Amino acid sequence: MNTEQFGKVAVLMGGSSAERAVSLKSGQAVLSAFKNVGIQAFAFDPAERNLFDLNNTQVDRVFIALHGRGGEDGTIQGALEYLGIPYTGSGVLGSALAMDKVRCKELFKARNLPTANFIVIEKDKPFDINKIIDDFGAVMVKPSHEGSSIGMAKASTVTELTDALEKAFQFDDVVLLEHWITGREFTVTMLEKAALPVIEMVTPRGFYDYEAKYQVNSTEYFCPAELTPEQTSNIQDMSLEAFELVGATGWGRVDFMQDSDGKFYLLEVNTVPGMTEKSLVPMSAKTHGLSFEQLVVDILKQTLGESV
Q1: In what order do the strands lie in the sheet with 153-155?
Q2: Fold of 118-179
Q3: What are 149-191's pLDDT values in tens digits?
Q4: I need a surface site. Which of 65, 132, 153, 234 has the fewest CB within 10 A?
Q5: pTM for the complete prediction?
Q6: 19 given a catalytic annotation
Q7: Which residues pair with 139 in a beta bridge?
Q8: Does the annotation list 268 as a binding residue?
Q9: Residues 104, 85: Cα–Cα separation, whole Å
Q10: 97-114+183-288 fold
Q11: Considering 19, 146, 185, 200, which one is annotated as catalytic?
Q12: E strand or H helix at 175, and its extent?
């Protein structure tokens, strides 16, 4: 591999979102992988340096390892386009749409892709919490613009929903309430218009929350997931369609639930998934035959010969 073709690479990590801690771990893992294969790379934290400092570093391209707002929502992507610096992952539109859980759900619904029933609650607008519980029973509460399951909670009573909304509104003024699905959780890694092996996540915590992802050792992962060939093909095809639908490109992840009847439901699209030692994308890539170093280099290759 000719590492000189990449020039000088800035790995954007950290940032000021609620996912800063995870982003720092992802960025350090990516940076170490680049150094292992001889790519000239350095860390760049937009929370500590002005993004326009990139112009003074003579950087040739950027690997975005920023999660959440300010890094995964199109704002950094737009700034890099303004600066004329090639970057990894989705562009402005795909990043912004994928980060907005409400608009993603509306797109899925418009395309007749299977997704759980939902309603949207806004902080400063009235809503009938008793009716929500009567209509939906249990719900999953999600801030519309957060990732890593931050601010998410299950609620099946008026008291639980009141508490969950209070916490969710600390992160976002718009909150998505999805009908609770009891079943299995899956994710599909997307890499250059291909769907990699499906992963099933099994946790005793009730759902795959922040703690299950990053802080406990009780979560089990099965890759490839124990599904029939038809089910695997179905979930991968839906992932490709959903990824393209929101305008996502390059690499990412699409999450699913499967109910007790075996039906799959789209949850969301992630355009800058975690790249830590516990992250799902490297796990799927490894099953696909790619080492972590090969994975990050393949993602970086997407910036070659392209003008953003």
Answers
A1: 118-122, 174-179, 139-143, 153-155
A2: Dna Ligase; domain 1 (3.30.1490)
A3: 567 888 989 999 999 998 888 888 889 999 999 999 999 999 9
A4: 234
A5: 0.87
A6: yes
A7: 155, 179
A8: yes
A9: 28
A10: D-amino Acid Aminotransferase; Chain A, domain 1 (3.30.470)
A11: 19
A12: strand 174-179
